[in-house]
Amino acid sequence: MKVLIISANRNNRPIPVMPFGACTVAESASAAGHKVRLLDLMFERDPVKTVEKSVHVFKPDVVGVSIRNIDDGNMFEPVHFLDKPALLVSEAKRLSGAPVVIGGPAVSIMPETLLRMTSADLAVLNRGEIMFPEVLSAIESGSDPAAVEGTACIRSGKFECGCGREGRSSDKFVFPDFSRWLDIRRYAGRMAAAPLQ
């Protein structure tokens, strides 16, 4: 399948953070045999137009959206980041007609809220490099991707979470080839580093 993964994080203060998770998920999906494109919105002037163009050109079968931050962490004057990913998800759904799967740290923290805000079809909780290829396999085979443990969805207005194995680990550590997925020079020019957990 053709899979478009969108890294929605645009917070670049104090420095831009390379989307390690989105790159890892892209690498895993590619290793599972899918044709994957990663769209990093960090340096895009008009993220909505960039998403529109990518969906039009690539015509994905599935769209994944990585949501890194809920807010900027400032307790006194917080800036919230969730309205823009919600717009990106709705645009990706409208333009592609493809299932939209959300993931990333913010989604693992508050999956129900983000599913309702974005109207995404499914949320992958925690280990996206393990879960997302399983979700893609389910979609490709025509089975229910929400049956994959470690995912969540909204059905008939109710939040459903199959959280049985979301914390499981794998004996295969995936370290992405950042230069395959990102414009490394732009990050290096801003003194960015790859985050590790």
Strand order of the largest sheet: 2-1-3-4-5-6-7
Helical segment count: 8
Tell me the structural class.
alpha/beta
Order of helices and strands: EHEHEHEHHEHEEHH
Beta-strand percent range: 15-25%
Helix content: 25-40%
- Terminal Cα separation, in Å? 29 Å
**Major sheet size, sense and barrel closure:** 7 strands, mixed
Radius of gyration (Å)? 16 Å
Q: What are the segments in which pLDDT stays under 50 over at least 5 consecutive residues?
A: none
Principal-axis shape: globular
Oligomer: single chain
Average pLDDT confidence is 89
Describe the structure.
Helix 1 crosses helix 6. With 197 residues, this protein is of the alpha/beta class. Strands 2-1-3-4-5-6-7 form a seven-stranded mixed beta sheet, sandwiched between helices. It has helices spanning 20-31, 47-58, 83-96, 105-109, 111-118, 128-141, 178-181, 184-188, and strands spanning 2-7, 35-40, 62-66, 100-103, 122-124, 151-155, 158-162.
